[in-house]
């Protein structure tokens, strides 16, 4: 019953006017970036980090969570009406949703996506509220070796388990881990890989890397790739409302989607795109009218949309209780916590309980706001899709450089009267890296997760080895760590076997991408 | 990128070999830099060099894997990319970096804005630089004055906000 009290208190805090305003800004921005192709919640949160530096921590975090949830809602609109998913978790929605829109059933498709997202968001957030305290209790007994094993598992699931190539996933991860080495080692004060550059002593900023990979890399790829068709927006014709038949066919799919999505997000088993894909397959096999799949089956929109929202809420379980980010957006939200001197993990629940519960409660509030924003106001969001590409991407780069300068505007390099911002040079370099990664089929998220999680994993590893005085056996000394390693081995091994048996294409569709 | 091929023929993928070389190069840099570190004997056992060596070893293995992958031609097919667009955007970013300290945020970012629009085929430059600079100034004003973000100010920003240079 303790959870109820804490949640009620959190709800009171979340309903305060300033927190409501932060939540509203968050969900509005989130929906907008979810709708716009090319930018997602990870980039938006990264851009907003420097701006929120002086704001209230609780309010800022509520806003970030609103952006995350909003991005999941908004993405479905783009998939359904444009057939170009706004964020990667909505790829599956495009399969049936766009078919429905072309048949003039765009309205009900958007409605089942929005209501499904709402149902899933609500249930999954409650799930988060009730599971989190148990995980926290459990996590308090974790030693550094258990944390290290947990991070190894996260590395594996983010990079190798899904996607069409474990090699490219791991390469992306190791690039991130390598970048994480740069700077002063916190435990000994030794400088590593800084090459005498003062600006590198503090290490690479997660936000600079994320903004570069997502904003600059994506802009370069979109501008240069002539194959990208200019997709047309399908107008919403007919009634927005779902018929009784639609409701009957949707409700079970929403629930199934939620129960698939939430554990996948919570267990570090991959991102929202994995959840939505699995939900799609489940709906296909459960459906009474499987012949409609591929021609606009409403279950194929309802299930995956519920699954991707539930998985977004699930991702917050390891993030808040263990400090373990499993998606790019979660990694940047972790940077957001750290910006305010907060370290997510079991201690956060003990030391900052009001903040954590206000954040969780505000997710419930954000969910109601999103339902209102996405059903009656849908026409407004659709208009965002008509912004011409040249203005859209010129604007994205303007904000990308603005955010980077705002975070670190020091002009520490230069020649003569011309001073140069080192942070912008890094932005350019990582932007080109982001383009090359996209061009050669490397996933982006493992780079970001590697940069933020690498130093944390190193710290736990060294703590463990310091306790055991260098004996590696300590890493396998607890039952928890052994279980985690076994899961990690299965997560690498199973896809490997599937690929060898020619089922690689299935995994390719499960690629954990941007958000 | 020696052979910019996209055909799944049985020929080593040149670009993938270049990637493997880069990964191996990164590993060498990490090995070399880490070996240069002077450590007090107390730290040597599980000190700050362990993790870099692990990561560098991983990069070597991945480089080998990439070579194998390149030989088997198992990289995904690549689209034919238009490098003009890339030069425009990279040029815009370099332009902004160089102009920022002298011309101020609005003009420097206006150049970036215009070059990016140009990469998507929108011109003429004089017009888009103007549009971009006005847009950048509005954004600068909101963030620098409204949200107290420290952004570099130049001639235009000072003139328009304080009335003097």
Walk me through what this model shows.
The complex is a heterodimer of chains A (515) and B (165). Chain A is mainly alpha-helical and 515 residues long. Chain A has one domain. Helices cover 71% and strands 2% of the residues of chain A. Chain A contains 20 helices and 4 strands. Chain A has helices at 2-14, 17-35, 41-51, 57-82, 91-139, 144-161, 166-181, 206-224, 244-266, 272-286, 299-322, 328-339, 346-351, 353-374, 378-384, 389-407, 422-439, 445-467, 479-500, 504-509; strands spanning 183-184, 191-192, 413-415, 418-420. Chain A has a two-stranded antiparallel ribbon. In chain A, strands 3-4 form a two-stranded antiparallel ribbon. The longest helix of chain A is centred in the N-terminal third of the chain and has 49 residues, at 91-139. The two termini of chain A are 35 Å apart. Mean pLDDT of chain A is 85; it is low at 511-515. By secondary structure, chain B is mainly α. In chain B, 67% of the residues lie in helices and 0% in strands. Chain B has helices at residues 14-35, 50-71, 83-119, 125-146, 155-162. Classes of the chains: A mainly alpha (515), B mainly alpha (165). Chains A and B meet through α7, α8, α16, β4 and α17 of A and α1, α2, α3 and α4 of B.
Number of strands of chain B: 0
- What's the β-strand tally of chain A? 4
What is the number of independent domains of chain B? 2
Rg over alpha carbons of chain A: 22 Å
Count interface residues per chain for the largest interface.
A-B, 68 and 73 residues
Structural class assignment of chain B = mainly alpha
Mean pLDDT of chain A: 85
**Spans of at least 5 consecutive residues with low confidence of chain A:** 511-515
Q: Main sheet of chain A? A: 2 strands, antiparallel
Radius of gyration of chain B: 24 Å
Mean pLDDT of chain B: 84
């Amino acid at each position: 019953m303790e959870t109820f009290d804490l949640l009620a208190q959190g709800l009171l805090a979340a309903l305060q006017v300033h927190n409501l305003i932060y939540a509203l800004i968050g969900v509005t921005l989130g929906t907008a970036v979810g709708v716009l192709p090319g930018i997602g919640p990870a980039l938006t949160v990264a851009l907003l980090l420097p701006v929120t530096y002086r704001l209230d921590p609780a309010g800022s975090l509520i806003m970030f969570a609103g952006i995350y949830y909003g991005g999941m809602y908004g993405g479905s609109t783009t998939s359904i009406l444009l057939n170009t998913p706004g964020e990667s978790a909505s790829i599956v929605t495009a399969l049936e949703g766009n078919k429905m829109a072309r048949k003039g059933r765009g309205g009900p498709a958007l409605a089942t996506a929005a209501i499904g997202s709402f149902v899933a968001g609500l249930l999954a957030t409650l799930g988060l509220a009730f599971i989190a305290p148990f995980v926290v209790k459990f996590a308090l007994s974790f030693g550094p070796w258990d944390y290290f094993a947990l991070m190894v598992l996260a590395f594996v699931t983010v990079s190798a388990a899904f996607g069409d190539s474990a090699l490219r996933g791991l390469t992306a991860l190791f690039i991130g881990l390598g970048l994480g080495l740069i700077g002063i080692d916190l435990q000994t004060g030794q400088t590593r890989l800084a090459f005498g550059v003062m600006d590198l002593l503090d290490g690479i900023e997660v936000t600079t890397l994320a903004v570069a990979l997502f904003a600059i890399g994506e802009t370069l790829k979109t501008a240069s790739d002539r194959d990208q068709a200019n997709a047309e927006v399908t107008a919403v014709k007919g009634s927005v409302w779902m018929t009784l038949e639609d409701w009957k066919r949707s409700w079970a799919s929403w629930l199934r989607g939620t129960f698939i999505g939430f554990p996948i997000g919570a267990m570090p088993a991959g991102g929202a795109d994995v959840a939505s894909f699995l939900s799609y397959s489940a709906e296909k096999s459960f459906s009474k009218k499987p012949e409609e799949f591929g021609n606009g089956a409403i279950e194929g929109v309802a299930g995956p949309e519920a699954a991707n929202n539930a998985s977004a809420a699930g991702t917050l379980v390891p993030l808040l209780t263990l400090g373990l980010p499993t998606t790019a957006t979660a990694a940047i939200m972790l940077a957001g916590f750290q910006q305010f001197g907060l370290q997510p993990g079991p201690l956060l629940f003990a030391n900052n309980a009001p903040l954590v519960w206000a954040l969780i409660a505000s997710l419930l509030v954000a969910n109601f706001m999103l339902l209102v924003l996405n059903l009656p106001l849908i026409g407004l969001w659709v208009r965002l899709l008509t912004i011409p590409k040249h203005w859209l991407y010129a604007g994205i780069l303007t904000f990308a450089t603005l955010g980077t300068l705002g975070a670190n505007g020091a002009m520490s390099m230069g020649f003569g009267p011309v001073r140069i911002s080192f942070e912008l040079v890094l932005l350019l370099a990582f932007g080109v890296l982001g383009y090359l990664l996209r061009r050669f089929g490397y996933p982006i998220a493992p780079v970001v997760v590697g940069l933020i999680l690498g130093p944390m994993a190193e710290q736990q590893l060294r703590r463990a080895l310091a306790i055991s005085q260098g004996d590696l056996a300590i890493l396998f000394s607890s039952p928890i760590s052994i279980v985690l390693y076994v899961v990690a081995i299965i997560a690498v091994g199973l896809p490997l076997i599937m690929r060898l048996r020619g089922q690689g294409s299935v995994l390719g569709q499960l690629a954990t991408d941007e958000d | 990128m020696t052979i910019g091929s996209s055909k799944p023929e049985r020929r080593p993928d040149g670009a993938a070999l270049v990637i493997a070389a880069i990964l191996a190069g990164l590993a060498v840099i990490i090995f070399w830099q880490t070996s240069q570190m002077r450590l007090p004997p107390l730290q040597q056992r599980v000190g700050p060099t362990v993790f870099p060596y692990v990561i560098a070893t991983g990069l070597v293995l991945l480089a080998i894997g990439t070579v194998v992958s390149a030989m088997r031609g198992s990289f995904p097919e690549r689209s034919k990319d238009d490098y003009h667009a890339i030069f425009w955007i990279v040029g815009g970013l370099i332009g902004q970096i160089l102009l920022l300290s002298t011309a101020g945020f609005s003009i420097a970012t206006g150049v970036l804005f215009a070059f990016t629009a140009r990469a998507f085929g929108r011109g003429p430059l004089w017009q888009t630089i103007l549009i971009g600079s006005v847009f950048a100034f509005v954004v600068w004003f909101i963030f620098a004055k409204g949200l107290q973000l420290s952004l570099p100010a130049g001639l235009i920003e000072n003139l328009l906000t304080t009335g003097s240079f």
